[in-house]
Design goal:
Strand order of the largest sheet: 1-5-6-4-2-3
Number of helices: 10
Helix content: 40-55%
CATH class: Alpha Beta
Largest sheet: 6 strands, mixed
Number of domains: 1
Radius of gyration: 19 Å
CATH architecture: Roll
Order of helices and strands: EHHEEHEEEHHEEEEHHHHH
CATH topology: Elastase, domain 1
Strand content: 5-15%
Length: 354
């Protein structure tokens, strides 16, 4: 299952995969065509920074850098494509604005930042107090949100198919976690390493949402992006971690392509060799583990495991690292003694290792 790779340093991490926008464009959705074109321009124009693996948290010994809170800065692009055009809210502003996109970006970024600090002792997404820069109202009805290596960018959507991309905590958690991955292991954004990159963002996007809503694994819907779906797509989502391949099935978006088992692994070249598509396989594993030991406990294992990943890691190597992390944390009494067996069984259920 070898595939071509592109570096994390020249790929953008968008919440809406290109194949969904392409399907929308085929259905004569002009906003999708424009958003697809703009997304491609952004990929060419901007480069993601080199990742920095210094300051990685040791969860066992609790060795970490001194805490220095990062500051949030929200900018209004006013429908243009210039970033940091006008700052409209910054850290410490006590009153919210009348713009819900500004308030959601500010509040949800704070929830993500606080989750990483309180749960993992991580000092912002780079573990060194990086400020969180958030740009809202990017482009005209832009149908996407992305992390560009320095900051977050959110479109407004068209109001019918997608609504404002700041509306979903899991989307903001997902995209900011691309920054965590960038500064932790720099997973290359293509093929299996790219699918792991997307998987990790889905894992912590969903874990942050469940933690904030005080949901159990059994209570949660396990859907990614349900809160950005407009009235034309009500009741659907971008991905289902519980049942990959079932999040959407409609004329506008097409059929959800995610497999839930290695026997259906996508081996084509679209989607950077399947980064959004094949992430469904490890996503299913995280769901299964969470249902047995709880999402918070599963997230601890996954966070510990990603500290050992390297840029070209594949699925089999990821299996080894997650199983090793589960056993180490179980031996330390941090997670249930049965965690390693639970993890192994979940991976086997989806055909991993292959």
């Amino acid at each position: 299952m070898k595939s071509k790779r592109c570096s994390q340093n020249n790929c953008q991490c968008f919440i809406i995969p290109s194949y969904i926008l392409e399907n929308l464009a085929k259905n004569n959705i002009e906003e999708a065509r424009i958003s697809l074109s703009k997304s491609r321009q952004v990929r060419v124009r901007r480069k993601i920074k080199e990742f920095d693996i210094t300051g990685i948290v040791d969860l066992t010994n609790e060795v970490y850098r001194p805490y220095s809170e990062s500051a949030r800065h929200v900018y209004d692009c006013k429908g243009g494509t210039k970033l940091r055009a006008m700052e409209v809210r910054k850290e410490g502003d006590r009153s919210s604005t009348q713009d819900s996109a500004v308030n959601h970006a500010y509040d949800y970024a704070g929830i993500v930042r606080d989750y990483y600090l309180n749960v993992f002792l991580r000092n912002s997404i780079d573990n060194n107090g990086l400020d969180l820069v958030l740009n809202v109202h990017y482009g005209h009805n832009f149908m996407n949100a992305f992390w560009d290596g320095d900051e977050m960018v959110f479109g407004d959507g068209d109001g019918e198919i997608f609504i404002n991309f700041t509306n979903a905590l899991d989307v903001i958690g997902h995209e900011l976690t691309h920054g965590v991955t960038q500064f932790t292991n720099g997973l290359e954004y293509a093929g299996q390493s790219g699918a792991l990159n997307e998987h990790i963002s889905d894992v912590f996007g969903i874990a942050i949402k469940q933690n904030y809503l005080k949901q159990t694994a059994q209570d949660a819907d396990w859907l990614i992006g349900a809160d950005i779906m407009g009235p034309s797509l009500k009741g659907q989502a971008l991905r289902s971690m519980k049942a990959p391949g079932t999040a959407f099935d409609n004329k506008l978006m097409g059929k959800d392509l995610q497999p839930d088992h290695m026997k259906n692994y996508y081996q084509g070249e679209d989607d950077n060799n399947g980064v959004h598509i094949n992430s469904g396989i490890p996503n299913k594993v995280f769901y299964l583990v969470s249902m047995e030991i709880g999402t918070d406990q599963a997230a601890l294992i996954w966070y510990h495991a990603i500290q050992s990943l390297y840029a070209t890691a594949n699925f089999n190597q990821f299996v080894d690292m997650v199983e090793t992390a589960a056993q180490k944390l179980a031996d330390s009494g941090v997670v249930p003694a049965t965690a390693a067996k639970t993890v192994k069984t979940a991976f086997n259920t989806v055909g991993l290792p292959y």
